[in-house]
Structures are given as structure tokens and as C-alpha cells.
Amino acid sequence: YACGITVSEIRPQLVKFVGKILDWIGKYCHWSNPQGRNAVHPVIHKVVDVEENIWSTQFGIKGKIDLSVVCRLPENLSHLSSTLDTLSLVPLELKTGRPTYSLEHKGQVLLYILMLVDRYGSSYTTSGVPQLIQTANVGWLVYLQNEIKDPPKALSDPGLVLPRLASFRGLLQTRNRMASQLLRLVNSAAQTNESELNRWSPRLPPPIGQLRTCQMCPVQLACSLFSSSHGQPCSRISSTGHGGYETVANLLLTRRAHLSPSHVRFFTHWSHLLLLEYIDSERLEDVVARIACPDTTRSTDSTVNPRSHAGTVRQLKVVHTLTTTSDISGPWRTILIPAVNVKTEYSAEAGPGPGELVIVSSDDGRHVGFTLGTILSLTRADWYKLDVTTQRLLSPTSATYEERTQCVFIQTDSAEAGPGPGELVIVSSDDGRHVGFTLGTILSLTRADWYKLDVTTQRLLSPTSATYEERTQCVFIQTDRCLPTWIESFRLDRYVTSKVMQLNLSNLLGLMQNSPICDYLRGLIIDGTQPLFRGTLSKQVVSDIRGILKHLNTCQRTAILRVLMAKHYVLIKGYPGTGKTETLSSLLRVLARLQKKVLVVTHTHSAVDNLLTRLIKCGEKRVLRLGSVERIAPELIDYSFEHRLSEYCTNNPFSDPSACIQGWIENAAVVGCTALAASGGSGSRHVALTRTRFDLVLVDEASQLLLPTALGALICLRSSDGTNCNEPGRFVLVGDPHQLPPLVQSAKARQAGLDRSLFTHLLDLCGQSHLTALDRTHDPHRPSVPNGHVVELNLQYRMNAPILRLTNELSYSNSMQPIDSIVSNATLADRLCPLSARLFGDTMAPPWLRRALSPLLEDSALFLDIFQWNSCSGVDRQYSNQTEALLVAFLVRLLLQCGLEAVDLGVIAPHRSQVALLNRVLAEPTPGTIESTATRQLATGVEVNTVDQFQGRDKRAIVLSLTVCSSNQTTRRGLSRNLLEDLARLTVALTRAKHKLLVVGCSGRERSANESHDIQMFAQSDGVLHRLFELLFQSNDYHALTQDDFAFVKRLEQM
């Protein structure tokens, strides 16, 4: 479909190979040609592996060998073997093109010879062959277009590639030159200081200057653009027979002749920022180095388990392997358990999780990356039970069913470490000798379903067992090949990919293409062309959409009408709780009614699912959801492109699905996917988008997307045909500039501006760069520039008056308004009952606690300052605070006891380690009467998560744990900056609460007897959190807890 051809057109191209393949098998395979030792050509006796994945840490190269085969070499090649018998393990490379036996092809086979020697050594053993087999004495290059008549004798066969020292030397020198250029690039960014970031450019090698090669190069435009950043793009290239420097320079200049200098600067600036992010982020070579050199890369911190590392699980042995098909290509499912009985402290945030891709290696690091594997998710209905004595799977009806091992995933001991659910891991030998046997995905991670295995008795223990916490957890992974049996101990490492950076660079390059739509977009995004609007809408359009707009409020209707009148683009500021999803679903209904084709992209899968689900519930069924079925909401499965295609191919195995694919896409009024799925060139973008153009692209969560990421979807817009009847497509960006910006790992890239979204970029172009309340404090008279293409959704349905007032003054410059008095005056009065004597007995509850549990409107927002509890001294290197966690758990239990439901309560912390600590504390029983078994069960049902994970959702009550005291000098030296000093992140945390907001933390200042002095001290302090403390203090929503209060909490827990 993507190539524009049908199965009937491609079938003849494939069929012509079938006869040649069968002829080749008949001549060269032992089971078809029993000539054996008398053959004058190699004869294959066994296929060891197909697409064998080898990451050679000895030579610094990686690749996949088409076929690793055991061959009997003819006697005239016996001089290559040190034994009388001439069996050899040979890399076989298949080519479908015309036979050329070029240096490139032979060089590839020579590299495979090196890889096989690195993996297996000088000799190899295999089942069914009683002798040692020589490794890689020769390589084999096979062209499938060759006519198989009389096979040439071995010595005259150009496909047999003999190892030669000079060839190896040249190949490795070329490899080292490439590696040195990559290292030079990495070092050039690492050594750049902050003042030079905006002027930094990558140190790249010059173009090769070979005209014939450059004319056929598929990346001419990229080469031309990168060369332009160095002024004289080819000044270092000497003259050649094809015109040399001048001709190649002209070629490169011609490729970018359609671009202005500002366009080229835009490309180089953003590509440099992406490279900074890539260089400062963890890369695959870092993971491989950690596998290959496990002893030298271990942490020197004695508190860290030496067998653990971020994203790593070590010392695992295979206890069972199974495959669901008879095909050698799998998928294979493997159960691993620890090779040694080592007690490890497990954490919910660590270790590979379900669906994660892992690298499978030998535990000693000798063999890196046997394969990639997927950690499998097991539901209670599909758990595999393993009899570890007989190594057989048991059926659910087995008498010893409950005594068997249930496979889940193993955890490491770092709260911040370990792959999460769905990630890819690298499977290697534990000693680091063999890296990357394969990749795999971890398939299970549910705390409630974890089972511990007594590795001594091989019996399953119940959660009430005395030694429950000392048991071992298993790993269940899925790979595309069976793991090697000759490796005793494996390790799994989280797979790190640079795919996102590649897609972003492809988007930037796509914007630079010489096409009408890219020229249109460059004018708007780079040149700053002001967007235009139609003066009116036709009466027919107004009549058609009136019923859809009827239930919306004024600003929601305005946003939709501005989109319909726009000729270019509209920016919608969707503030929290303002009905953004309802507005966008109504906009999609309007566009579908007007027969417009729309592409919807978002930052996350959940966001696009929420929007499409709302649209379907409103009656619009012409929806197509793109993306992996595993990542799509269950209610959208029937609208999934991948699901439909799978069902069609299953039910019609001999039919051509191209016509159906075309029909699904043409009939869809709304197509939805993530922004990354719409990114990249024609070979990377989702296949359903390669031949389709859209009237409008809607980008939700646009303020969370990197600018290059948002470009991919816009390139899918319809271009103009030069007439007024067919104008170019429009786009709509929806976001909140006051909330979280795009995630950037590199501090240097962030400082240089990579966290600037396309949404913010276009706001700045029109003078609408967002102002916070803090900005207006310093410049209250700064005028705002009215722009018709910027629309605010500012009538909110979420927060009551006290919480809204706090967020308005802190971030939104009082631009948000409640939709009505019902929202403004809403409280928890329908949930929270008065404090009962049963909870406190004869003890009088202090004022701060009465307010914390009060359903009154004036008590909706409250800050509990525990500075006097010495809470900052309890903050460790992992960003967790035990004192705060105890108070937060105390408040959560009391709120539940007073009638609040767990589903209505959320706990937010800035760091994952504090989230993990809070989950543990809430799960621990307390001896006091404030907690019953039922309350503890409810407490474990309360969602505890980071700010980022809570974005886009809300709860009736929120407890916010600040965790880190930003004013503590010791903390400043020992820890990096407080995440909540970021105004955007703090804004997200505060705006999750609808009716109750409890902030627990340390202000860093002791309360004085003079209230005006305290206000002045907060006002004079720097930082976002101190501005929050000042606002809460001024509204009398501040309580400084004393040591007596600490004693009260501890005493109440013991009652």
C-alpha cells in the first residue's frame, strides 16, 4: 500500500526467485545432495541460526548474519582447517540483486567472519556432530539471481570469501575512523560551556567529494544543510576526475537553492539542539559498555547492590523455554530465575516491567546482545505453571497447581532504576563476554500478582509466609529466537534507542523539502507569516453545525468558530478544567459534518484515546485509530487499523488487503495517532499516512511536544493547487503554556531552548508569549497583543474558589473564571463526615488537623509546614522524605476514615522515589485505631504518582508532598534543584485538585510571632515555592506544625 503497488503486481517479482532458491538448496544442502566429502563445493549440514544477532565488543561492530551454517568444505580447501575433517561454521550472506561480488559485499562477509570468531572462538560444538567444528575459516556470499547449473569448484567460486589479514586491517581502520568522528562529535558538545551553547555546531567530517557517489546519495539535502553551517562546505576536498570540489559544492548548493538563509539557520539550530540532547542522554553504547565491562562500570557506592544497575537484572538462568508455533523464528517464551540465591531488596520502581524490551546477554559480559526480548504480561487466566523438577508446564487442573512457580519479573534495588512496563531489554551473558544475543520484552508487572519462589524447596510461598520477602521472583520474556544453551548465566538490560531523535531529525529535514506544503509551512513557522481568517461563515455552514455547538459555553464556541474561519492555523490555550476534551470532540464532529478529513495527533496514547472515545460516544463512527493494539484503549479496538488488518488477513489469507486499506483510510473522517507515529519520512511514518493528505491537523497536548516532533503531522496536510477552491490545509495546536513543557533530559539542550514547543514558538511569533503572575509582578503594565488566531478556554468546571484563586494568582494572571457558582462553591461536604470521638478519644484535635479534614469551603486549600519537625534532615540521595511520607499517610488514612473514597483521593510527589516510599508506607499496617484492615486496603487503592503522570487528570482531593526543602542549604549542596521550583510543574500539581488541596512540606523558615514579618520574609525570598507559601500565608491557609504536633501524630498512630 505504501509503495502504491498491489500483491498481484509484486507476486511475479517474488515467484521468479522460488525456482532458483529450490535449485540452490538441491545443490548445496546435505539433505538434498549426499555427495558429502567428495563434493567440489561447500555442502551445508546444519543451519545454526537465522539472522544471528552479534554485537562484537572485541571489534566494536554489530550486525545480523543471514545464516550461520555448518558446512563441509571440499578437500581442496582443507588447508583452511587444522583438523583432518573439514566441517566449518560459516557465515552465509544472501543477496537478491544482480551478482557483482563487490568490495562492499565481500567486506560485509569478512566482518561476519570476525563476529563469529568473537562469539564462538576458534572452534564450535553442536548437537549431532561429535567433533569440534572450526569457526569461520571462510565466508559465503550467495546471489539468488545466479543461475544454478554446475556449481563452480571451491577455489574458483567468487562467492567464497577467504580471510585475509590486509582486508581485516583495512576494514577495522575504516571502522575506527568512523568511530573517531562520532567520538569527536560527542566530545565537541561535552566540552562546550554554557556561554557557547547557542553558537555550538557539530564537528562533522567534510563530504567525500566523489561526484558519482554524491549524485546517487539519498541524503543530499541533509548533507547540504549540515555543510552550510561550516561556511565553506567543501573547502577541504581536493580535485577529482569528476570535477572535484567545485562540482560537488555546486550539487550541494543546488539541493538547498529553494531555501532562504533563515530556513537554513532554523534547520541547523534545531538539529544542533537535538544532537545536544542525544549526546547528553544515555545511549546504546553506554549500555553495551556496562554489559561488556561489568566490573569497571559498577557503582562505587556501597549502598548499591553490586549486582544491580539502572535498568539491569543480572545472574539469571533459564529454567524453561517454549514456543507457541512450530516455526523456528518463534516467538520464543523463556522463564528465567536467579542463578544464585541472593537476597535483594526489591522496589516497585525498579527492574524491567511488562512489555519492556530487554537486551539478553551472558551475565559475565563476554557475550553481549544474544537477542532482544520482551517481558511478558501474565493475567491470572494465562499464567504458566512450571514444575521445576521435571521442567514441564502444568495445566491449571494439576493437583500441584498452586505449588508451581508463577512467572513475574525480578526487581532491582534502586527506586529510580529499572525498565518499566513495555520496555525492550537486551539479553546478554552475565559475564559480559557475549553482548546482545537478542532483544526481548518483559511481559509482567503487577504487585498484587507477584509470587515469591523458595529456590531451596522450589515451592511457591504465600504472602503470609515468614520468609516471603526473602523469596526470588522470576522473569518471563519473549524473544524471536531460543536463547543459547551454552550460556550458564544471563543478564537483561533495558534497551536504549535513538529512534525519537532520528524521527525528529527526519521531521526537520522534511520541513526543508522542496514541495508546496513544506514551502507553506516554512512561511508560517520560520518566516512568521501572519495567519489569515475569512470574514464570515456561510449560512449553510452555520445551520449545519448549530446543533453541535448548542451545549457549549461562549469561549468553547468561539474556539470552534475561529477554526472554521481560519485559513492557516489557530492556537487554543486549553487551561485546566475548562472542558478542552469536550471542545475538541465537538470540533471534530463539526469538521466531520462539513466533510473535512482530519488527522488528530497527541503526545500520549491515552490522550488520543480519550478524544476519539468521546467522539464515538457522540455518534461519529468514521474513526480510524493507528498504533499498536497493545497501546490502544479496549473500547477502540474495533476502530484500530492494525486490528482490522490482522482480522482481514486471518479471515482472507489469500486476498490482497491493499484495496481494503485504501477504503478504510478514505472512509475515515477522523484518523488518530501519537505525534511520533506521524513523524519521520515515508519509510518511518505510519504506513496509513504515507499516501493520505488531510484538510486539517489537530495537535492536542501541543505544549508538551518538542517543536520538531509536531512538524511530522503538519507535513501530512493537503497542499494548495494554486486556486482559491483548494487552499492548503489548516492546523490547530491546543496546549497550556503554563503547564509542563516538552521533556528534555540534557540540561545544556534545555538551556539552549530545546524545551520550546511549536505552540510556544508560534505564540512568541505573534507577541503572545505567555506571562505568569510572577512576570506581571515585575511588569504589571506590560500590554498584551490581541491576536485572532489565539483563543483561550478560560471558563473552568474543576476547581472551587479557594483553589482557583491560588492557581490564578500564581500562574494564570487571574485569567481563569469559574463557569458558575456551583463549581465555585463545591466542597467535599457530601463525602467528609464530622470528626468522631472514636478517632481521637478524649484527645482534642489540633486546629490544623480539623482544617485538613474539614469539608468547609474556606478550608479547601491548606499548607502544613513541618519545618520544626526537622524533615529536611530525612531527605536522602534518592529524593525521598520519610517524615513527609508519614504525615501524608496519616492524612490519607484519616480522610478515608472520614468518608472520602479512595477513587476521589490522589497523592502527588515530584520524585518517583518518594512515590515508591509513599506506596510502601500506605501499605504498612499501623497499631493505632485510626486504621482498620479495610482502611489499609482503601489506602493502598489511593493513586500515588508523580506530577507528570497526573497531568491531564483530576481528583476531588489532592495531597501534595513537596519532598525537598528548597531553602535548606545542606539540601542545596547535596541534591539537584527541586523539581517543584519549576512553575509549570507546580501548576500542574496544584490544578489536579477539585475541592481539597493539602500541601505538605518544609518552607525552610521558622514561624515568628510577628505575622507581618513572616509575610515580608516570604515576599523577599526567591523561588516559585516561596511565592506559593506567601499566597497561602496571606489567605490564612498556612499552619506551622510544632514538635507537639509531631508527638500528637505519633501518639495517635499508637492509640
Automatic annotation (TrEMBL):
It is an enzyme of class 3 (hydrolase). The keyword Nucleotide-binding applies. Residues 781-1002 form the DNA2/NAM7 helicase-like C-terminal domain. Pfam families: AAA_11, AAA_12, Dna2. Residues 1-69 form the DNA replication factor Dna2 N-terminal domain. Its main location: nucleus. One of its GO terms (cellular component) is chromosome. This is DNA replication ATP-dependent helicase/nuclease. It comes from Paragonimus westermani.
